[in-house]
Write a structure and sequence with these properties.
This protein is α/β, with parallel strands linked by helices. Helices cover 37% and strands 22% of the residues. The chain has a four-stranded parallel β-sheet with strand order 3-2-1-4, with helices on both faces. Helix 1 links the parallel strand 1 and strand 2 (37-43). The longest helix has 12 residues, at 19-30. It is globular.
């Protein structure tokens, strides 16, 4: 079974009232029947508490967080690809 990398980008999800969506996303990825995957969150240096919530999932071993300022979603996605270990990246 090849490793699959799932990349999700985030930025200030509490401020934009999207925190429930990221929780649903993370839980959906984690509940898949395909077991050989890694989930990478690339955050644009959120300052609203988003990272505290994401950290709870990282502490469970469900994902890995990388957080630093970026110039937008495309740079964030490319950073995720650079960190990916999977044969397939989504």
């Amino acid at each position: 079974m090849p490793l699959v990398t799932v990349i999700t980008t985030t930025y200030n999800l509490i401020k934009s009232e999207r925190i429930e969506f990221i929780k649903e996303c993370i839980e959906s990825v984690h509940s898949q029947s395909y077991a050989n995957f890694e989930h990478i969150i690339v955050d644009g240096a959120s300052s609203d508490g988003t990272l505290d919530i994401l950290k709870e999932y990282e502490d469970k071993g469900w994902l890995k967080i990388y957080s630093e300022p970026d110039s937008g979603i495309y740079q964030a996605m490319n950073r995720g690809i650079d960190k990916a270990n999977g044969k397939y990246v989504v």
